[in-house]
Amino acid sequence: MIFNVLTLFPEMINEAVSHSIMGRGIRSGHISVNCVNIRDFAINKHGQVDDSPYGGGAGMVMMAPPVYDAYKSIVGEGTSPPVIYLSPQGRVLTQKIAEEIAALPEIILLCGHYEGLDERIIEEIVTEEISIGDYVLTGGEPAAIVLMDAVSRLVPGVLGKADSYKDESFSDGLLEYPHYTRPPEFRGRMVPEVLTSGHHSNIEKWRQEQSLARTKVKRPDLIV
Ligand code: 4G3
Questions:
Q1: pLDDT digits (tens, 9 = 90+) for 159-206
Q2: Which residue's alpha carbon is at the smallest distance from atom 13 of ligand 1?
Q3: 53 lines ligand 1 (CB under 6 A)
Q4: Exposed end of the chain (fewer CB within 10 Å): N or C?
Q5: For residues 120 and 131, what is the distance between their CA atoms, to the nearest angstrom?
Q6: Is the pTM of this model over 0.85?
Q7: Confidence grade of residue 18 (pLDDT, cut at 50, 70, 90)
Q8: Given CA atoms 170, 176, 181, 183 in this order, what sign does their dihedral have?
């Protein structure tokens, strides 16, 4: 899967995706992250990409032409992959939405800054607006990184056998059961006996009960 990212801070994106499972997914060719620096399409030699808002008021607005030219550098005159704008006004990201995006071969992520983008670039190129949660960030980059992380691990081949995702939170609508490893005793706390019993059906049953019990306590909204 190809992630194109329109951003003023490509280094922030490239650094974030170079580690851990995303880094491995890039090196193995299962995903690729292609950042386009909107600054490279500035309207003048001063590198200007923003201006004061028509109608007055504080802050700056990102100008449409540099964003459009950056976008055109990805798509040329051909058909475009979906353009997702990360904004607090978008549909809130869920595991289901991440699964839908992971089925696409290519997307373009648009990261805004300042007070936002000129509305006309949103009308012109954006096909979907997504929020990573109900809070405001200084820029869209952390939101784009979150979205790419959630989607990448669903792209076939990105997760190795060792980090399989069939038992995890949300895959069956419940939270994960608790995990334990050595030592058998830590500061007086023991590992639940069932996990060292070798009785696989009892272990499976215990894990299901734990998942349900902790979902009821921590996230009752996931059950009703
Ligand atoms: C557009 C995304 C972008 C408009 C971006 C602010 C939060 C999210 C921005 C705007 C962002 C989110 C940049 N903050 N919840 N900040 O996904 O008002």
A1: 987 777 655 677 578 999 999 999 999 999 999 999 999 999 999 999
A2: 139
A3: no
A4: C
A5: 20
A6: yes
A7: very high
A8: positive
